[in-house]
Amino acid sequence: MEESDFLKQWKEKARTLRESGVDLFPNNFQVGTTSAEIQARYGEQPAEALEGLQDRVMCAGRIMAIRNFGRAAFVHLQDRKGRIQIYLRNDILGEETFNMFKVLDVGDFMGVHGRLFRTKTGELTIEASSIQLLTKSYRPLPEKWHGLTDVETRYRQRYLDLIMNPAVKETFYKRSEIIQAMKSFLLQRDFLEVETPMMQPIPGGATARPFKTHHNTLAMDLYMRIAPELYLKRLVIGGIERVFELNRNFRNEGVSTQHNPEFTMLEFYQSYSTYEDLMTLTEEMMGEVARTVCGSSHITYQGNALDLTPPWPRVTLKDALLQYGGMDASILSDQGAACQLAKKFGLEVHNDETHGSILVQLFEAVVEPKLMQPTFITEYPVEVSPLARRKGADQTVTERFELFIMGREIANGFSELNDPEDQRRRFYEQAAKRDATGEETGLVDEDFLAALEHGMPPTAGEGIGVDRLVMLLTDAPSIRDVIFFPQMRERA
To answer: What is the reported pTM?
Structure first.
């Protein structure tokens, strides 16, 4: 691919500087402070006070704008904390240095040493007594007045997105704060953070299509994990009664504004607890995280006001079908009526579908999009909850909940099934379904069953979709806006 004339001219500048003896990539400049630290220390001082200061500052960053007036120039320098204005004068820097500066471009990195003053417009500015080129860029940045608005380019070239759009960088700083706040919440409650295998011999812990790979030395197929659940439960069996992992899961399924094949999940387990305990803990955690990151448990998402103040409604799945879906109560006891209603809504219902599975499909299609404020939906059918404990008197449902906010599932938790015989039966039911469909889900994990037979204490566990939570707390419309490098199709 031939270089454009513009790009050739850009690189010619670099050659001119190099031939004049300028080091284009030095590594000997010591940064003394950031733009934010300068603003914090001197931002409130009036011009007269700055004039009398003997202080000199040293900072560095990327040139984002240049206004050249011949014998003087203004530059906006951007570092990791923000921007600051630099004033350069020929008579202060000297002819040779100022001429070198005139060959620099927006996008280059520059180090500056100088004193502070205020311009006529009152802007805090560094009057440079010396400057140094730190890195010469070989390609231009996007045109500054329009920024970087093309969504495709923003996601494929995230580095340009971060350079040109300060709000994007702020989103990812907030993402880090959210993750640290969640970890801190659990660590303060005596949870242990762990890491479990990403490559697993059996894709267990959830129902999803896995990514498959092959280990040459071991001569065996492995799967990228769809969930860490069965390994974390092994740790509970081993005596780690409070445990969590915040890491990646991989599911070979759809890509959308809410789904990425590689996503971040917080999964945790607490012994001697029930799903009701975890609902309370979840309310506390998310409220605390919102207050830490957003300053309040009242937030706005895409123009919608959300109140994360506990307690949140807890509604059984069956009641939700009636309360939010406006459905007739007959569908709860009559599988035929449920099947007929599902077809009316355009759902594909197979002959082997169970009554509980049909009710869940109706819920997902009709009710889920209506759950805008934080709401726990509880008592999911056994057939769609293979790892959850059955609920007391009603053995057709489980002690399970899902949390919905803005019509999206944010968390899934339940009282764990610790009866090894019941667990074995459910695994084999899943395996039979797999044999019928040919999908690589629901394989029987005999090693986990052996661990369970050694005894697991009463335990409740939960998984929280970190990316979706970050979307809510940063007002991001797409999951791609909160993942640095989302999965994309190959360029045509």
So the answer is: 0.92
